[in-house]
Amino acid sequence: MGLVVFYDEEGEFSHRCSGSLLTPIVFLTAGHCTDGATTARVYFQQDAGARFDGTSDPVTGYPDTCAAGTLGSLCATSDELYNYGFDDFAGFPDTKDAGLVILDQR
After folding, report:
1. What is the pLDDT of residues 17-46, one digit of tens each?
2. How many whole angstroms separate alpha carbon 6 and alpha carbon 34?
3. How far is CA 53 from the centre of its chain?
């Protein structure tokens, strides 16, 4: 499990979602999460958003860089996001609400 934080074209915080790491670089989340986002950062640390307060404050509480861990980095970045045809639940019940975040390789 991980926390994925999404950013818009200007690099501003947009929203956050959870998901699961399927392979070392493929992170599964919901299609409505990747929809409209440009980049993402996935955290695998429990306190990544501890200071997040839900307001429009430019200081979101999310770290700007990945923290080092005993097994390597505890987060990863991505600018490759897919939503596989999600269209704001228009095709209910076939909403295609699956999204992938392809993590940058280091």
Report:
1. 999 999 989 999 999 999 999 999 898 877
2. 8
3. 18
- Tokens representing 97 are 């609400």
Closest C-alpha among 62, 95, 56, 102 to residue 79: 102
Strands 39-43 and 75-78: antiparallel
pLDDT in tens, 39-88: 998 988 776 666 655 543 344 566 666 655 544 567 888 999 999 888 88
**Letter for the amino acid at 43?**
Y
Domains and CATH numbers, the chain: 2-48+60-102 (2.40.10.10)
Burial class (CB in 10 A: 0-12, 13-18, 19+), 43: buried
Q: How many helices (H) and strands (E) does the chain have?
A: 1, 9
Judge contact between 28 and 61, C-beta under 8 A. no
